[in-house]
Specification:
Length: 435
């Protein structure tokens, strides 16, 4: 028996590039083999529970626009109805994974003990649904930013009781993720930052954040959780400055607190834009340090200065992101989570389905373009040629030398190099051949 929320809609089928059906895949054929692996196994799609089911359609200037049968989200009966609808959507889309925050699943109860009890109840209910179908949990996480208790942060809060509440909350969420067979656990510091340095001890807060994350890693090993622990960079909004600004900042933080071998990154396209980067940059930085974990696929409105979390629709951007993912060996325990929401004017159930269909198709097109570029080898060939000088014995010796010896060599060999073209436009034109 279904809820009737998606009444009249059928499971989404692959119809190919000639189809004009907005509720069919044109490019995402889950069984198509790309670089020796099924497309589904490359992309590992996940639906974000929060944006698809918990978000009510508000924005900074207006309140709820969605009228869902599980609104208001204030009791366990509605929480279970929301889960029923969510799994109906997972079935329609045929996605292999979903993701959640604790606050997406269960109603806020006002106390830790009550929140834990409802989380355990709803994850038991969700677990029963998972057993009936082929779907897994890509990752779970704790929402430690929405409720007023988190206004001054969680692990970085100046109140030690709030640190304790945060630690207990993460333990409960990690237990729930482990119970559901989650493949990762994410920590996103939504308010781990500051509004002003006038009332902030930045050094102490960073130390507390580092200690907190070490506690999470220790507990992961204690309970035998085999998934990856991930942190998610975000530069701003809502805080003036957040400690997890971008991939490079997070990597430096992890190395400072001895976590570089234990924690990887969950990277979001929208957050990359807010930090002044491209998504491919953030992925390349994480991959270069062996810390690429998973991705949140979305986009921002380039005319807005905040995190609009729209579904991806730019194939060239997506193709370059997957190019660097494929070069790094692909997503291992990670996946492609649609941390994206329909617009607040898109109020019909069909909009939830169509938005994901479009996003999945864009990612499929991007993946195939990325794979074609790798098979062609043009970018790699250009890269090898540009750095060819460093393969010589004299160049390698120079890195083990000192300034005096290098100066003597420049003088004796009369080294006076001429600049060489980076050929950026030629390479950009090359990429456009594939997208």
């Amino acid at each position: 028996m279904t809820t009737g929320f998606f009444e009249g809609l059928s499971p989404i089928a692959f119809e190919g590039g000639n189809s004009s059906n907005p509720l069919a895949f044109q490019h995402y054929d889950r069984d198509e083999v790309v670089l020796g692996k099924r497309m589904e196994d490359h992309l590992r799609f996940a639906v974000a529970y929060w944006h698809s089911f918990a978000w009510e359609g508000g924005d900074p200037f207006g309140g709820q626009t969605f009228e869902r049968p599980w609104h208001p989200q204030d009791d366990m009966g509605r929480a279970k109805l929301k889960a029923d609808v969510a799994f109906e959507m997972f079935d329609l889309l045929g996605v292999p994974y979903f993701c959640w925050h604790d606050a997406d699943l269960r109603p806020e109860q006002g106390s830790y003990a009550a929140n834990l009890a409802t989380l355990e109840e709803i994850t038991d209910y969700v677990g029963e649904k998972m057993e009936l179908r082929d779907i897994g949990l890509l990752w779970g996480t704790a929402n430690m930013f929405s409720h007023r208790r988190w206004m001054s942060g969680a692990s970085t809060n100046p109140d030690p009781d709030m640190f304790a509440f945060a630690a207990a909350t993460v333990k409960g969420c990690l237990d729930a993720t482990h119970k559901l067979g989650g493949e990762n656990y994410v920590l996103w510091g939504g308010r781990e930052g500051y509004e002003t340095l006038l009332n902030t001890d930045l050094g102490q807060e960073l130390d507390h954040m580092g200690r907190f994350l070490n506690m999470v890693v220790d507990y992961k090993h204690k309970i035998g959780f085999k998934g990856a622990i991930l942190v998610e960079p975000k530069p701003q909004e809502p805080s003036k400055h957040q400690y997890d600004y971008d991939a490079a900042t997070c990597i430096g933080f992890l190395r400072k607190y001895g976590l570089e071998d234990e924690v990887k990154l969950n990277l979001e396209q929208g957050h990359a834009i807010l930090a002044g980067h491209s998504f491919e940059h953030e992925i390349a930085v994480a991959a270069a340090e062996g810390m690429l974990g998973s991705i949140d696929m979305n986009r921002n409105d380039y005319q807005s200065g905040w995190d609009t979390d729209q579904f991806p629709n730019n194939v060239p951007e997506v193709a370059l992101a997957y190019y660097h993912i494929l070069k790094a060996g692909g997503l291992q325990t990670g996946g492609t989570n649609f941390d994206a929401k329909v617009r607040r004017q898109s109020i019909d159930p069909v909009d939830l389905i169509a938005s994901h269909v479009g996003g999945m198709d864009v990612c499929a097109r991007g993946l195939k373009a990325a794979a074609a570029m790798i098979e062609d080898g043009g970018l790699e060939k250009a890269l090898t040629e540009r750095y060819a000088g460093w393969s010589t014995a004299s160049a390698k010796d120079m890195l083990n030398s000192d300034l005096g010896a290098i100066q003597a060599r420049v003088l004796s060999e009369q080294i006076n190099p001429e600049p060489k073209s980076g050929r950026q436009e030629i390479l950009e034109n090359y990429v456009n051949r594939f997208v």
